[in-house]
Amino acid sequence: MKMRAFSLSLLTIAGSLFLTSPQLQATNAPPAKAPFPYVYAKAFHIPPETTTEESGYFSLCEGLNSKIYIGTAKYNFNAFLIEFDPKTEKQRIVLDTDKLCGLTATGYAAQAKIHTRNFVGPSGKIYVGSKQGYRTGSDKSEYPGGYLMIYDPKTDSSTNLGMPYPGQGLIDTVADEARGLIYIVTCEDQHWMLYNIQTGKYRELGPILVSYATTLIDPQGRAHVLTRDFQLATYDPATDKVSLRDITLGSRKLTQEDFLKVPPTWILSADKTSAYFVRMTDPSLWSINLAGNGPTTARELCRLIEGKGYDSRCALTLGPDGRVYSVFRVDNTTGFGSGYLHHLLRYSPKNNQTEDLGVLAVKNPNYYDFKAKKPWSHGFHTLPDGTLTPLHNHMALIVAKDGTIYVTIIYPFTLLKIDPPKKVIHG
After folding, report:
1. 360 contacts 407 by C-beta, under 8 angstroms
2. 0.85 exceeded by the pTM?
3. Would you say the C-alpha torsion 87, 91, 97, 100 has a positive or negative sign?
4. Where are the strands (E) in 250-339, listed by range?
């Protein structure tokens, strides 16, 4: 502060000399232009009373009512589902796990997260599950297990379907409403469970799955998951049987060593006969065939981006136009600032082309008081041109029916709303 005061005094005394100084002209020069395009988003702070560390996970979806639903993590206490209305830009709690399930436990025994990818059924009902947090300090409590829950926007009411697997949290839930079935993946041991809506009973389907596994349902009603041995497990409700199929690349069988050292994310293709697949630390986009009954094939389609230090957290989704969207964080090696950059990427299956739409940027940086330096507010940084951009981790990505893109960022827990990209906007 003393040096700044001294500099100001010199400017007052000898302003004309300093105004013609090349050094001062360089200091007052406009900021350098970013060497990459920006994708500008409007940011919304998720209600802070629903988190303890300004975080959430994969829990993000668009309801049939065009509202956005986000799950939160309130470690040692509770977990909530939040509704965001894009028209009014207002948020509210629509599901309180403790209240719905009649719970009071705290610490490690608490239902600390809604970590499941929100699944929206044809009825409009939203299926989620709860999960444990982390044991801290001298806490000796035990986690009882997560709950399968449904929120119905039509009636603004929730249903508790109980605990699929004692001692295990829930990492994924997908409903086949036409057949009255709900598929669940547990954690930390990745059991594949099936709930029969008519009987109200759970049972285990068989193979242990890869971490963060997701169930995909094809047009025949068959459910598919990836096992920890990198096989394709398929449950057919018509026969009530699970089959295991190898996944091949050319004539070679793929194994766990090929892919599953890091968590994968996969989604259904537009015709639901195949799946798109990326790994958290590798931007290669793959396609895996789900059709048929014999060995299934994998194809590498493209590299979504080149760089270093790749990181993608549940950020793979299909747009209403059939194009694949993803977010990857890479090391900022451009010389324009430091830290990391989060790129919004798009792949077109029709012409096999990949687009880098740009680096995520906040157009309303005052949405949160970063100057207050509150705990858990370190997830964004400012680039040399003054642009606020995510730093550490994105957590989920969806494209809404109207083409609007939503991304969640942690620290503080933030929903980014991006207008449908018509062209690349350069900084």
Report:
1. yes
2. yes
3. negative
4. 252-253, 264-268, 274-279, 282-289, 296-303, 316-318, 324-331
